[in-house]
What does this fold into?
Amino acid sequence: MRRHRPQRARPIDVPAGPAVETVIEAVGGEGDGIAPGPLYAPFTLPGERVRLAPGPQRREVEAILAPSPQRVTPPCPHFGVCGGCALQHWEHGAYLAWKVERLVRTLARERIETQILPAFAAAPGARRRLALHARQGRKDAARLGFKTRKSWDVVDIAACPIADPALEAALPAMRRLAAPLFEHPKSAPTLHATLTSTGLDIDITGVERKSGGLSADARMRLAETAAEADFARVTLDGEIAYLARQPTVRFGPATVALPAGSFLQAVPEAEAVMTAMAVEAAAGAERIADLFCGAGAFTFRLAEVAPVLAADGAAPAIAALQAGVATAPGLHGITAQARDLVRRPVLAEEMKRIDTVVFDPPRAGAAEQAAEIARSGVSRAIGVSCNPATFVRDACTLIDAGFRLERLKPVDQFLWSPHVELVGVFNR
It folds into this structure.
C-alpha cells in the first residue's frame, strides 16, 4: 500500500557562525555528520562530541572530543584530503547498515513496503574502473589522482584501496601517459581507466581541442608510453591513439569487445550478484526485454533463459552486443536495437509478446519507459538502479498499475561512498 506524501523542504542556509561544541546526531545523505542547527560536519559519526570551526552550515572539524566506538582507522593515506571516499572512518557493519536504512527510508516516504534481502558489499581492491584527473607536473610525469575536497586541484595518489591491484600498479605508467596532454593551458584531462580481460583500456577526455588538439609529437609520446606500459588501448574522446589489442570483457557465455568509453559496472562481483538476481527472477519467462542494456551485461545471461529484445541509446554498445552474439552459441536468441529510451521508449504495443522486462537506466531513471511498462501486459519487471530516488519514482508508476515490489537487494558497489545501488523485483 502506498500513499503520497509531500516532500520535506530543503534546509535553508544559516549565516556564518562562531566555533561551537556539539554532538553529531546522524549521518546525512552525502556522508556528512549532522548536528543541531542543522550543521554539517564531514568525517564525523553519530554520537560523537565535536568542536566545529567557525563557518556556515557545512563546517570543518577542529577536534573530535568524544569519538564514537564505531570509529576506525581509515585504510587510505589520502583519506580526508582526497575527495574520493567519504566514509572510510566508519566500522563496516554500521556503515553498511546506514546505507540500507537510507534505502528503506526512501521507500518509506512513498509508503512502499517490501522484503529487503541481505546487502551485497564490495570488497576493497575490487574496482576495475577509475576516473583519474590529471594536472601538469614534471615534464615526464603528470600529477594524477582524485580531486581534493572543495577544490579543482588533485591529490597525487600513491595508493588506492578501492582499486584492483592491477590498476594501482599502473598509476606510475598513467602519470607518464598524461604528461604530454598539457600543450594547451585549458586542458584538464581525465583518464577513464578500465581493467579488461586483455589489459588496461584508457579513454582520455578533457584535452583542449579548439587549438587543433594534440600535436603529432605529443601523440607519438602518448603511443610510446602506452606501448612501454603494455596498455591494450588508449583513446582520446573515443578516437584511437594507440591499439595493441582489442579490450574485451566476459558477459556470461559471451566475449564482448568493449567500445571506447563504454559504461561498465565498476565491480565484477557486484555485476555478478545483480545479474544472478535478475536471471533468477526471470526464470520461466517466455520472452524478455532488456532495456538500457549497454553492451549486454544482463542480456547474454538472460538469453540463457528466453529470447531477449535488447535496447539502448548507445549505438556503439549495441554494435558490440550484436558482435558478441557470435561468441556465445546456444542462446535463445537476441534482437538488439539502438534507440533513445527517453525520447523513444519501447511502447506497450511493442511488448505484446514480452512477459518480463529488465530495466537498468542511468541516474535519471526511466520515467518514460516505466510508463510504457505500466501500460503493457508485462507481468514481471526487474529494476536495477544506481539512484534510489528515481527508482522509487519509477516504482510508484509500476505500483499504481498493479505491480507489487516483492523484494529488493541493496548493492554497495561504490565502497566508502554515500552511493547505494539496488535490484528490485516487481510482479502483478
